[in-house]
Amino acid sequence: MLRRNRDPKLGIKVAFGFVMAVLFIFPIVWMLFVSIKPDGYVTTQPLKWFLPPYTFSNYTTLLFDSLILRWLVNSLIVAAMTTILTLIVTSLAAYAISQMKFRYKNFIFIFFLLGLMVPGEATIIPLYEVAKSLNLLDTYAGLILPMIASPLGVIILKSFFDGVPKEVIESGVMDGCSHFKLYYKIVCPLAKPALSAIGIFTFIGSWNNFLWPYISILSETLYTLPVGLPVFNSAYSQAYVLPMTANAIASIPVIIAFLIFEKQIVRGISFTGIKG
């Protein structure tokens, strides 16, 4: 294969890619091996972390005798609901701006563009005051609703909806389709690549979100994993095994999701033009 390829640097590129893959995978492998060591296991020789003895009792202990499983469920609920509501809200807004005619449409779209220039941290204080006045603090609704506004999602979908052939829209109108039917029967099916990309990045962002859950949640039973894990790890600051098991429990669902949706994630990155 190397001879057939005209790129003389292909071998170097393959070797470099292999080395980088090993560097990225090694911490995950090390985490998994440490997580199946007996509780309290300590060694000064790094290679012994990969050798027996092994046990899965750490997983059963954390899943059934701690709040890790509850935090995992909270993260799944919040990430799933945030993703679903974000897709609904952003797609409806993008369709209205793209396909419907009303005054100040371009002006409203500029506001969405300006939303990309405001860092999320700058909105935390007013967001907290609004959530407090609406009694949304320390609730699932308080975790989900503030996160469904996605200016980037509206911009991406609006650009995609603009590319839908006008003949398709006009034929739907001639057949008696309302705007809502045009939205969910014609436009949304054509926008599956864009919706998939936005859904994937919204889910990952919600799963890893730390700042807003940390501020808005007071009860430990409502913690998500990014908030609960530091609390758990602080109680085992001198240990390796149980904190690593907790991190493995938090990472395994994301790793499985990545393996399942790898093609969609790569396609979404290339579609949105997001780098890094």
Automatic annotation (TrEMBL):
Matching InterPro entries: MetI-like, MetI-like_sf
Superkingdom, natural source: Bacteria
Record's bilayer topology term: Multi-pass membrane protein
ABC transmembrane type-1 domain segment(s): 72-261
UniProt entry keywords in alphabetical sequence: Cell membrane, Membrane, Transmembrane, Transmembrane helix, Transport
Localization (cell): Cell membrane
Gene3D superfamilies listed in its UniProt record: MetI-like
Parts of the chain that traverse the membrane: 12-33, 71-95, 107-128, 140-161, 182-204, 240-261
GO terms classed as biological process: transmembrane transport
Organism ancestry: Bacteria, Bacillati, Bacillota, Bacilli, Bacillales
Originating species: Novibacillus thermophilus
Protein name: Sugar ABC transporter permease
Primary location group: membrane
Family: Belongs to the binding-protein-dependent transport system permease family.
PROSITE patterns attached to this UniProt entry: ABC_TM1
GO cellular component: plasma membrane
